[in-house]
Amino acid sequence: MLLTVFLAIVFCAAMALMLISCVAFIQDNRFFSSAPKEARSVLKQREQELFYGARAIGWTLFIMSGLLILGTVVIAVWDGFRSGFTFWQFFWRFVLILTIYKICDMVLIDNYLLLKFHFFQHYYPEAAHVMEGRKYGFNIKSQLLKLFVIFPAVSALAAWICTLF
Predict the structure, then answer these.
(1) How large is the C-alpha radius of gyration of the chain?
(2) Does residue 162 contact residue 90 with C-beta atoms inside 8 Å?
(3) Best label site of 13, 14, 116, 124, fewest CB within 10 Å?
């Protein structure tokens, strides 16, 4: 259980690092597909780097966060195999990791980082008027759909695949 919580924290940190690398350093609009449609429609594509080497730093951080996510999955599965996990143990491990991530995403990233601290608006001031007046995060319906339907389904599929071996 302790390992699962640790892996969830690492997963959340990796996703936050990925967000920071995309918004602050890479600055490519293709990475903002989860942003609200209103915000995406006003974003200007950044052709020039924020500073020399910003995109190289961003891609390095992006790759590191991807490796952290992959490592989280590998360790979760490997430890489950080593410990002789059943379907339900794998399922609950995956559901717990994804649920902690989604709650972290909704509460910390969407609510605080984007709305209270204006992180996104600092790098994309043209989207500031879209985000004004929001009291809570973005895409609440899709967030809850992921939390209650998609993530449990993905967890069940991953647990089933793990129990095949």
Answers:
(1) 18
(2) yes
(3) 116
Evaluate whether 99 touches 147 at the Cβ level (below 8 Å): yes
Cα 60 to Cα 26: distance, rounded to the nearest angstrom: 10
Report H helices in 21-164.
Answer: 37-42, 54-83, 87-104, 119-123, 128-131, 140-145, 151-164
**CA separation, residue 126 to residues 37, 43, 156 (Å):** 14, 6, 41
pLDDT tens profile 123-157: 777 777 777 766 666 677 888 899 899 999 999 99
Contacts of 66 (CB under 8 A, 6+ apart): 14, 18
